[in-house]
């Protein structure tokens, strides 16, 4: 898709820091985006600017007023980006911390019954539900995800939905399998049986790939970690429906409006997310003539999805004269080869070679990937598959097919060396 606009890929890559090289390693291909995407250069500049400002919000001076305007503008930008005409946005310590707060509040603010989630979920939401369900007199029920597809759907949730489901959690995209989930369909299934349930979504892995539409989901909470969506570390971002926000929650006594944010938040965090929204707006403007920001953001999401699908297809099926992972004997791809749920991520194993060794060899070849182990982060996905670990290759839209070719060339070298070492080479 990006190739239809001359020079666009160069413009995209110019907007990110450290696209082609690591300040510690030198030149490398960055395929570790699920661990934290590249940072917009505008975010770097904005962070430095606001880090130097000594003033606080809420004071009677021009600087304080300017800071409040930045926050108000950022919240408006967030509403456009997420397509959230109501509710409120807050920032916190991290996406994980905010999932704990939202899930904990929903559990403690409702009566006995069920907290419903799935085995696909990251421990951020599963751990929060596991902690707060018993504290609020509830049973935590987990829907089994599908090992074959690496995802979960409404049909799997349906048998476990009961009228006393008080809280439900959904993972939008798995950071291990890379597969997306139809949030709207699952939420609709829940609402049909338990219309008053509070539904909270972990969107942390999904956000970088665009196409978020809160108005279409019928949910009560959505959480992301902006450092995985081209911003920076040090804060999380959450949207809360009006009814979730109205539940009793941690806040300062007698504070007007019963705010959710605890203490003075970093204005720079808000400002850097405005940079993210501005980037999506700019990117979408390359594919539509619309003057409407939301329309441009939607166009960006479609273009990102199409480009990343092209990259993962090349990784799996090959590019140029390089065969893809699907043609390498002994490779197992989690979630299957041709899976329409895939969002810019391929996790795989190779018979006879530990995942950590593959990652080390790729790193030596200048290809940054990551090992996912069957631990507290990924054991829910890998253990049922009988895997101790897997190689995760995670892409974003600023990656190129040429970088995929470098990865495949390195993999073929690794496989060839491995077979020779095992005595099976010629």
Automatic annotation (TrEMBL):
List the molecular function annotations (GO) for this entry.
lyase activity
InterPro entries (alphabetical): Aminotrans_V_dom, PyrdxlP-dep_Trfase, PyrdxlP-dep_Trfase_major, PyrdxlP-dep_Trfase_small
Respond yes or no to whether keyword Lyase is given for this record.
Answer: yes
> What positions does the domain Aminotransferase class V occupy?
29-245, 303-406
Gene3D superfamilies reported in the protein's UniProt record: Aspartate Aminotransferase, domain 1 (3.90.1150.10), Type I PLP-dependent aspartate aminotransferase-like (Major domain) (3.40.640.10)
Q: Which UniProt keywords apply?
A: Lyase, Pyridoxal phosphate
Official protein name in the record: Selenocysteine lyase/cysteine desulfurase
Species the sequence originates in: Rhodovulum bhavnagarense
């Amino acid at each position: 898709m990006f190739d239809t606009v001359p020079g666009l890929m160069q413009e995209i890559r110019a907007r990110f820091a450290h696209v082609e090289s690591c300040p510690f390693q030198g030149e490398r291909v960055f395929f570790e985006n699920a661990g934290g995407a590249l940072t917009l250069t505008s975010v770097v500049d904005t962070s430095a600017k606001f880090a130097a400002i000594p003033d606080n919000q809420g004071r009677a001076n021009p600087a304080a007023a300017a800071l409040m305007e930045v926050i108000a503008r950022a919240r408006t930008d967030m509403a456009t980006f997420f397509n959230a005409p109501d509710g409120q946005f807050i920032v916190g310590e991290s996406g994980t911390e905010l999932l704990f707060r939202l899930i904990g509040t929903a559990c403690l603010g409702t009566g006995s019954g069920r907290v419903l989630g799935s085995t696909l979920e990251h421990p951020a939401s599963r751990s929060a539900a596991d902690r707060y369900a018993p504290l609020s007199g509830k049973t935590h029920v987990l829907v089994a995800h599908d090992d074959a597809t690496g995802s979960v759907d409404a049909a799997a949730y349906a048998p476990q939905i009961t009228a006393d489901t008080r809280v439900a959690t959904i993972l939008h995209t798995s950071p291990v399998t890379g597969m997306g989930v139809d949030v709207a369909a699952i939420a609709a299934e829940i609402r049909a049986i338990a219309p008053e349930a509070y539904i909270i979504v972990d969107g942390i892995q999904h956000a970088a790939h665009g196409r978020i539409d809160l108005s279409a989901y019928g949910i009560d909470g959505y959480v992301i970690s902006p450092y995985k969506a081209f911003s920076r570390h040090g804060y999380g971002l959450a949207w809360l429906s009006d009814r979730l926000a109205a539940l009793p929650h941690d806040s300062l006594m007698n504070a007007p409006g019963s705010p959710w944010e605890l203490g003075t938040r970093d204005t720079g965090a808000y400002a850097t997310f405005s940079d993210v929204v501005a980037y999506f707006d700019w990117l979408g403007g390359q594919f539509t003539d619309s003057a409407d920001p939301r329309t441009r953001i939607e166009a960006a999401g479609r273009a990102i999805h199409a480009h990343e699908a092209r990259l993962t297809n090349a990784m799996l099926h090959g590019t140029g004269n390089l065969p893809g992972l699907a043609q390498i004997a002994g490779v197992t791809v989690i979630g299957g080869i041709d899976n329409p749920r895939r969002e810019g991520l391929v996790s795989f194993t190779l018979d006879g070679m530990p995942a950590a060794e593959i990652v080390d060899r790729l790193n030596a070849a200048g290809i940054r990937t990551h090992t996912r182990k069957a631990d507290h982060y990924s054991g829910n996905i890998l253990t049922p598959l009988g895997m101790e670990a897997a190689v995760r290759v995670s892409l974003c839209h600023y990656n190129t097919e040429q970088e995929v070719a470098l990865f495949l060339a390195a993999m073929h070298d690794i496989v060839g060396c491995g077979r020779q070492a095992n005595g099976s080479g010629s």
